[in-house]
Amino acid sequence: MCGFPDYGIGACADALAPAVRDDRVGMKALILVDMLEDFVHGALANPRVEAILDPLQRLLVYARSAGWVIVYSNDAHEPGDPELSIWGEHAMAGTPGAEVIRELEPRPNERELLCPKRAYGAFDGTGLDAQLRALGVDEVVLAGQHTHICVRHTAYGALVRGYAITVARDAVCAFEGVDEEDALGYLQDVYGARIATVAELTHERASSGLVRGRRPSAPISARRRGVLRR
Q1: Which of 93, 131, 158, 229 is most exposed, with the fewest beta carbons within 10 Å of its own?
Q2: Strand ranges inside the chain, DSSP E
Q3: Hey, where are the domains in the chain?
Q4: pLDDT at 26
């Protein structure tokens, strides 16, 4: 299990860790972001979640069978957390709203990690980077919500720490009213993320068109629209 965030010196040291990877073993980690009761049925329920549940379940089954590391990156807020002034109380540590939904129930073990967080990004003061390094992970596959907030911040955390980034485009979602294609385009253009469908990811071993470092064609790039927003 990851440690709870430290917003003091430890968080600064973690954020400034050099982006150097241990290349002894290539390994993927599936990071499932905020698939919690409060984000699906509760305080910040998102109707778009329904469309990603089946792809998420298929991706999780595949990741387990393929031996990937699995990370559940879960909001677990304490009173006074800065985020609460923006969104109100949600996913408070120890409450039912902070539990992973039953459709994606965790099976905690040395390679299936529960990683509570008190900020947007999965790497923000949680100790996740050290755990992934110890397991030989060099690529993260991001899924869950929200594409434009916690998935985005997690992608940035992965980028500055030297991980390759893949985003499962049909297994992430933003809030209603947010353009999903814009959110994915930002991840691709600014963080160099590879955008792939769950079908592509789960057949990766047999698909010669999906080699490391190449992105499948997908009309999401903000550059094609001549817009790159920061």
Answers
A1: 229
A2: 28-33, 69-75, 112-117, 139-145, 164-173, 194-196
A3: 31-225
A4: 76
CA–CA separation, 91 vs 70, rounded Å? 21
Q: What is the pLDDT of residues 155-189, one digit of tens each?
A: 999 999 999 999 999 999 999 999 999 999 999 99
pLDDT tens for each residue of 107-144: 999 999 999 999 999 999 999 999 999 999 999 999 99
Which residues contact residue 70 at a Cβ distance below 8 angstroms, ignoring those fewer than 6 apart?
Answer: 29, 30, 32, 60, 63, 64, 106, 111, 112, 113
Q: Return the closest-CA partner of residue 72 out of 101, 45, 106.
A: 106
Separation in Å, CA 215 to CA 58, 192, 204, 223: 21, 10, 12, 15
Give me the long-range contacts of 221-227 (CB less than 8 A, separation at least 24).
221/185, 221/188, 221/189, 222/182, 222/185, 222/186, 222/188, 222/189, 223/189, 225/185
Which residue carries 């241990």 as its tokens?
A: 22
